[in-house]
Amino acid sequence: MTAREAALPFHDVRGRGFSRRSPLTDGWEWIDNRVVAPAARVLPLADCAGLRLADAITAVGDWPPADRAALDGYAVAAADTLGAGSYNPVPLTAAVAVSVGDALPPGCDAVIPYEAAQAVGPFIEAIDAVAPGSGVERRAAWAAGGSPLLPAGRRLRPADLGLLASGGHHSVPVLPAPRVRILLAGGAKAGAPEQLGAMLAALVGRDGGVVGAVGNLPANLDALAEAYVLPGADLILSAGRTGTGPDDVAPPALARAGSLDLHGIAMRPGGSAGLGRAGGTPVLLLPGEPMAALAAYELLAGRAVRRAAGLPADLPHATVQAVTARKLVSEIGCLDLHRVRMDEEGRLEPVASPGWPGLAAAARADGFVLIGADSEGVPDGAPITMYSFTKYRFA
Amino acid sequence: MTAREAALPFHDVRGRGFSRRSPLTDGWEWIDNRVVAPAARVLPLADCAGLRLADAITAVGDWPPADRAALDGYAVAAADTLGAGSYNPVPLTAAVAVSVGDALPPGCDAVIPYEAAQAVGPFIEAIDAVAPGSGVERRAAWAAGGSPLLPAGRRLRPADLGLLASGGHHSVPVLPAPRVRILLAGGAKAGAPEQLGAMLAALVGRDGGVVGAVGNLPANLDALAEAYVLPGADLILSAGRTGTGPDDVAPPALARAGSLDLHGIAMRPGGSAGLGRAGGTPVLLLPGEPMAALAAYELLAGRAVRRAAGLPADLPHATVQAVTARKLVSEIGCLDLHRVRMDEEGRLEPVASPGWPGLAAAARADGFVLIGADSEGVPDGAPITMYSFTKYRFA
């Protein structure tokens, strides 16, 4: 714990309520300053899809290492095919059958495909003329030894994996996907955050993280504080027990385990979200109510996962520019997330007010719109951006 | 093997070359008619992200099952708060501390947050008035028992998983991701298709498939025919040994194992691709040369994976409308794939001609353009669609 963290005030909201909530942008700033990608590791190519290269990769040698056949067919001396055509077959004295990748036999400087030749008894005739080099892949045609193949920071595409494998790089240094530990409060109550594991794991996967473990969030403050400092995770998502009830032990447990740097975000839903660090690991506190957990993940925690994964920090949802079908009322001082559905005229209709709990309304929605803390809402027919619940941008 | 399949002619191209190649659209038609999603299975929610529901899901009961607190705070009789304000605290005779999800105590019809109350010694005073029902989540507010939650065919979003879990549906009937077996020809030669495992697995994953196993493609025709009919896969990708050389045993092996329905596609690269069935399982034959394998996957095999996954069959790449920076020459009768890079003016510059082997040029490209079999090419400045190598559309 640094001196600065120790000095941060911890305001216990249990049984009292929030005296203030921080703007969401404070949470973003914390994430942008404190969350970094895990240290580079050398991983086998099969585990590297979509990850970023930590270092530039250069060709280990000339590649291909020698002239070779680029076709299945006959290796020939191009000069021997001079004048050949389908009405003028030319016998080839030195035709050698080769397959793609075979070294070029001595005396040959071209490969003609089987389609350009015909066998007449034991003899091969060319029925098409070729130029020297035709059908041949030259030494170093792909890359000369030491030349750059892929730059540092490259997000590895499928074809890059094939390129690296072809070049003999079977494992490469990458920024690994961050290991995210999910802790879920149990209990038979409304929030039932223990039921949010599949949802949160799917969101973490979308944002480039790997869910290492989904565990139980202890109801006891001391036990929870100990759970936060267990090693093995790059990021912790803790869902449930963030509110103002007497059993809402997540914020004080995080304060004890390290630092509770923000608790209470001026947004609806999700206003009891928080964040801090335990044992150097960022911990994101999500409310247990399912819709509040979704909102706090999308607007806050997801940014931390994407930062740790080296992906763009902004919201990953595809956006649609549209107009409101109805007035959307919003609370001043609070960022409001409205679930909306696009009607047949392409206008956005609210499905549920920001405070309405549960995911049934999210399932009926096509996406969400955000009304900033400085706004009382927007009239009907106003232009607005919808963030899609079904389509995502990828970089 | 059906009578129709047995009757299909098998043209052996080894040592002879292709007498004709089929248009790519014939391959698409075969895939659209023959490849179906695997049978529905009931899977745990954690394995269902992105899959399609096989059946509609309805609420098993009222949900919530009873009126309950939607806030942490005090359950009250709303009438008792009449006239309360910060300058007029009103003592509450029957305030009961409740947490989100707690059942509403008898006689209470609202919940006020801790922020709207203050404790004065052992007494609780309201400092804000509330209406009946405020802070209360009504029985069946999310869904009444038997009402529809999610329709059949729904592609499950993260929030849907939370919705289903909250409603007690911990496993649901879905169309499972197709299991794809990848067979790779070995050998030290150019194609080195054995090195394409990571690339093909990443592509299959992108298209909604699950790679069950990556195995060796036997060089022996009989052994390969047996490998094709092993059970356990919904789709087989076989890379390498598809050409006209004497060791190109994949097409005859597939003909022996079931049916070789197409071999030779009029496209560059990837013209030795093919497809057929073995033991009822679709088998896609990809060339072993890495760039040809990539093209044949993107233009042909990927469609089969997406069909089997219940995803839209069209190319999944995000598209960009742009103009050519240079003339692109194309061969009549052959669909040509040109790797292109976008220059600083946003024009598309060719990186390599369609026949140029290797993935180094694909790694330098931003995407590809397609020039149809009926075209000799396009002049510079012509409008054209680029398919991105880095961004994908998702439905």
Tags for this entry?
8 helices; 19% helix; EC 2.10.1.1 (chains A, B); Molybdopterin biosynthesis moeA protein, domain 3; 6-stranded mixed β-sheet; metal-binding (chains A, B); Molybdopterin biosynthesis moea protein, domain 2; 4 domains; Molybdenum Cofactor Biosythetic Enzyme, Chain A; disordered N terminus; molybdenum cofactor biosynthesis (chains A, B); 5-stranded mixed β-barrel; 395 residues; homodimer; elongated
Helix content percent band of chain A: 10-25%
Cα-based radius of gyration of chain A, to the nearest Å: 31 Å
Shape, per Cα inertia axes of chain A:
elongated
| Low-confidence regions of chain A | 1-7
Largest sheet of chain A: 6 strands, mixed
- Widest β-sheet, arrangement of strands of chain A: 15-14-16-20-19-17
Number of helices of chain A: 8
Which structural class do you get from the secondary structure elements of chain A? alpha+beta
| Strand runs of chain A, count | 27
* Share in β-strands of chain A: 25-35%
EC number (chains A, B): 2.10.1.1
Keywords (chains A, B): Magnesium, Metal-binding, Molybdenum, Molybdenum cofactor biosynthesis, Transferase
InterPro entries (chains A, B): MoaB/Mog-like_dom_sf, MoaB/Mog_dom, MoeA-like, MoeA_C_domain_IV_sf, MoeA_linker/N, MoeA_linker/N_sf
Pathway (chains A, B): Cofactor biosynthesis; molybdopterin biosynthesis
